[in-house]
Amino acid sequence: MSETVTSRLAGFHKLSMVARHEKLAQMLNLDDADLAQLQGIGALQPGLANQMIENAVGTFSLPLGLGLNLQVNGKDYLVPMAVEEPSVVAAVSFASKIVREAGGFTAETDEPIMVGQVQLTGYGDPTEATRKIYAAREALLALANSFHPSMVKRGGGCRDIEVRVLPAPEGPRGEPLLVVHLIIDTQDAMGANLINTMAEGVAPLIEQLTGGRVFLRILSNLADRRLARATCRIPLEALADFDMPGSVIAEGIYQASRFALADPYRAATHNKGIMNGIDSAAIAAGQDWRAIEAGAHAFACRDGQYRPLSTWHVDEGFLVGRIELPMALGTVGGPIKVHPGVQVNMKILNITSARELSMIFAAVGLAQNFAAVRALGSIGIQKGHMALHARCVAVTAGARGDWVEKIAELLVTAGHVKVEKARELIASLSEEDFRAATGTEG
Ligand code: NDP
């Protein structure tokens, strides 16, 4: 790196995109090829897309923004975020700025332990089948690891087995379910493929040991042994805004937390806000965001009721936020080393391990949530949201270039952020103005 990486880039949003690229290139040693990726010039080529998925007919783009100001465990991170929704990037950056001034986020993460499931049927007595499987623990571990010796060499691999006997669900056949869990350390990989290979690999031995028949052999996306946690502690004075003292803003945030804890209808929206940040960062970093989503929501239901993934309370003059959720991420595997845009984003993230990435994502989720509950618990989100949404409305109505901002401002001033109003505004322009606004020949 040519200069220290800081995520505190004051005035970044006011720079042209070219100037933003220059700033990034300087700070992160990005080369012309990296910049070409950001500019969309060297983006994912149809030939590569054709190798990545089936029936490929092209590629599809999303805006890529940078979450700024994030500091986690004393280190600054710039967070690439791929998202179509206005306000997500601004919210993370805004919240992270308040948190960094209060000392930044503190985060931790579990070891990269995942579960592979093997479903056994027709095993006879569940206690006896369980005993036989545990008795063969060493043989099962050795067999699982024989399918991926390189993972063992780098310190990972199958570490343990567990047998679970689950009550039979309602249905015509009453056999309890017997599920063997392979407990696998996937190191810097999300791990799905290697887990599935191991789960399929041990199935014949489990059948042989028990006389049963194996059906499903696949990882679980409820990665509850691979949790990431982030916390922040903000002095109440730092929350003062909208002509309200910090204590009142904090009370609104606390009430938002209580609401989400008590009510799944609210918790779903609370968690959607968290995933706005995490999914955007996950897409940009080439992660399987469906897996992250599945894990997050299953974890949110762990005590039988759907709950918020983050909570807030006031403690001796500080607002304290905490988030905890499964984070099955990789710095290798899937599209990570294949997709050229992901590689540039990984450079920008400047991380060394999947665990480091997990902590960043947890902090991004908490930052996103902070921005949402801060507005929701005080003036509401529509004011800020509509100002950003207005740009999208202006573009939909046909505005282009500098005029997007101008029409958006007029829409907000008029208090009427609607496409039809934007069309009306464009139509009221002189012919010359109209050409400038829409980039057309009139
Ligand atoms: P890959 O199989 O693509 O890659 C992981 C491999 O990378 C490892 O097996 C390992 O192979 C190699 N590797 C190199 N360096 C490291 C390191 N430091 N730590 C760990 N591994 C390393 O990916 P995953 O197994 O992670 O699977 C993720 C993919 O699976 C995603 O694309 C996901 O979408 C998909 N998937 C997800 C499912 C789900 O979530 N339910 C189901 C099925 C697929 P080696 O040891 O040989 O070098």
UniProtKB/TrEMBL annotation:
EC number: 1.1.1.88
Pathway: Metabolic intermediate metabolism; (R)-mevalonate degradation; (S)-3-hydroxy-3-methylglutaryl-CoA from (R)-mevalonate: step 1/1
MF-aspect GO terms: hydroxymethylglutaryl-CoA reductase (NADH) activity; hydroxymethylglutaryl-CoA reductase (NADPH) activity
Root EC class: oxidoreductase
Catalytic activity: (R)-mevalonate + 2 NAD(+) + CoA = (3S)-3-hydroxy-3-methylglutaryl-CoA + 2 NADH + 2 H(+)
Domain of life of the native organism: Bacteria
Keywords: NAD, Oxidoreductase
One GO BP: coenzyme A metabolic process
Family: Belongs to the HMG-CoA reductase family.
The name this protein goes by in its record: 3-hydroxy-3-methylglutaryl coenzyme A reductase
